[in-house]
Specification:
single chain, 209 residues, mainly alpha, two-stranded antiparallel sheet, 51% helix, globular
């Protein structure tokens, strides 16, 4: 029988979990955004990393979630939008001094009201709407391209995974990673950040046939 032509669903795609950013990649993207004086992108990038919020929660942050009339908060608390998390306890995140500085500079320059969206779309049409997840992805992709990092290897979950993965790698504290991600179970966190796979690869590096 003649061979039939079929489209391979994963042709040209990276299959599996998208990896977190490395500390060197984070430092490079921050440097480039500072050099460009892109206050909005720097504040958004830093907030995404520190909070480890899902994209759907990150884009819906209001100014009042991160700031008061007296200044930028150190602790941010939200209820996750995801359906199964609606009845869970609020998720907290700590904003580092560097992130608070970038948010402060961004808020002063943008003059956003406390009740308004923290991050909005660009241009007149989008200026009163919160940033969409597709717009967030396009921004993240542009940051990766500036840093000469292949965007096809990463996704928005890469931003979410970065800080909890770093915490786990440095401390071995999976419970801390679970709390940062707002997961209901430790097994979900192990699966999400791929701890077992990472540990297996680390062991493999130490042994040779």
């Amino acid at each position: 029988m003649p061979a039939t032509s079929q489209t391979i669903w994963n042709k040209g795609r990276v299959v599996g979990k998208k990896p977190p950013l490395t500390p060197d990649q984070v430092a490079l993207i921050r440097l480039l955004l500072r050099q460009e004086r892109d206050l909005r992108s720097l504040a958004l990038f830093n907030t995404a990393l520190d909070t480890s919020f899902r994209g759907s929660d990150l884009v819906r942050l209001r100014v009042s979630d991160v700031a008061t009339l007296s200044g930028v908060r150190e602790i941010v608390e939200i209820r996750q939008k995801k359906t199964e998390a609606r009845h869970a306890r609020p998720v907290q995140a700590r904003l580092s001094a560097g992130t608070r500085d970038s948010l402060r500079a961004y808020l002063v320059a943008s003059e956003r009201p406390l009740h308004g969206w923290l991050f909005t779309g660009q241009g007149t049409r989008w200026s009163h709407n919160h940033l969409s997840e597709s717009q967030l992805w396009r921004l993240f992709k542009s940051w990766l391209e500036k840093a000469r990092i292949d965007p096809s290897l990463y996704g928005l979950h890469s931003l979410r995974r970065t800080f909890p993965t770093h915490i786990y790698q440095q401390t071995g504290n999976l419970r801390a990673a679970q709390l940062l991600l707002g997961h209901a179970s430790i097994e979900s966190t192990k699966e999400y950040i791929g701890t077992e796979q990472a540990e297996a690869l680390e062991i493999a590096r130490k042994y040779h046939l």
